[in-house]
Design a protein that fits this description.
alpha/beta, 2 domains, six-stranded mixed β-sheet, two-stranded antiparallel sheet, elongated
Length: 274
Amino acid sequence: MSMDNIINGIAKQATAENGDYIGDDGLLYCGKCHTRKQTRVKLFNGNTMTVGCLCKCEGDRIEKEKEDFERRERIAQIERYRSVGFPDKELRNCRFSVDDGKNAEVTKIAKNYVKHFKDFKKVGKGLMLYGNVGTGKTFIAACIANELIDECIPCIVTNFSRIVNQLSGTWEGKQEYIDSLNSYSLLVIDDFAMERSTEYVNEIVYNVIDSRYRAGLPLIVTTNLSMGQFKNPEDINKQRIYSRINEMCYAVQVSGSDRRADIKDGEVMMKLYE
């Protein structure tokens, strides 16, 4: 029995089962979308062979399954990013949608940072949110991270007290851990300068920030320090740390009644005010 006879037998069975039919060209057609389910291919020896192919509705079904699978995978990836990126679970609920609207200017800056994150990432620029306790710095930083994670961009929100505790007592694996922080597109350091100030801690702080700087990756820090304290630290050992952050971040003042930006000029920076 020839291959064509075998294929024709299968085609007749398919016709009987689901409404598919043989067209005038002798090929099998879908009974639903009326497009080919078979085609002829030319072999090297000059002969032709009839082979199966996807009709339109079957192709559409497979494409939809693929899209559904990718959508589920994306949702699962986003949830993994959020779970790992927010050791403090409460911060996972920080959203611009629940912002009280009392500090519209800083919220606008934060939203624009998210909107143009690719541009800021290219130049390794982040934000330093500074101001008194309770003015919403952590909330704004967490909102930015949550919005970026929604776009499947890996971020982590942590603090140096947590980082130091994880590295406490040993330098073994220190560099590997610091390098792992660079796997995140955005690193948010909350409550900067609230960690203990020792030679060991200052070295870790500097290494984390400097590693990010050398990798050209953005950083967001929140701090209760004033700009005066930041620019003129009493501890000379912190000068290089603060200087590095000043290079990497646009400074945004966050106050209780108003949030103003004290930001350097620059083409990329202007996108914060669109």
